Amino acid sequence: MNTVLSRANSLFAFSLSVMAALTFGCFITTAFKDRSIPVDIRVSKVMIKNVDDFTGPRERSDLGFVTFDSENTTTNQTKRKR
């Protein structure tokens, strides 16, 4: 006859297998979807400054600033097959 610990171990192993199968199913349903959208990126200003680095004694480091504009479409564009 099985002990309570043995039955709990079997139940845990079964539930872990079921969760792994569900996780794999969720992965398969979303892995091959087309998620590409049109994106337009423009860089308007790039600036590099030589500033003091406070991590070391009398060190200086480069600090870069980049200003850019991004335009994209975030609406749901699913194509329905009829």
Could you explain the architecture of this structure?
There is one protein chain. The protein is α+β, with helices and mostly antiparallel strands. It has one domain (4-72). It is built from one helix and two strands. A hairpin with a 5-residue loop joins strand 1 (39-53) and strand 2. The longest helix has 28 residues, at 4-31. The chain is flat. Belongs to the SPCS3 family. It is found in: Endoplasmic reticulum membrane. It is a single-pass type II membrane protein.
**What is the overall pLDDT average?**
86
**Morphology call:** flat
What is the tally of helical segments?
Answer: 1
Distance between the termini: 58 Å
Our count of domains comes out at: 1
Trace the largest sheet across and list its strands. 1-2
Structural class: alpha+beta
Q: How large is the radius of gyration?
A: 27 Å
Number of strands: 2
Topology order in helix (H) and strand (E) letters: HEE
Uncertain ranges: none
Please summarize the sheet with the most strands.
2 strands, antiparallel
**In percent terms, what proportion of residues is strand?**
35-45%
Report the helical percentage.
25-40%
Protein name: Signal peptidase complex subunit 3-like
Transmembrane segments: 12-32
Membrane topology: Single-pass type II membrane protein
Keywords: Endoplasmic reticulum, Membrane, Signal-anchor, Transmembrane, Transmembrane helix
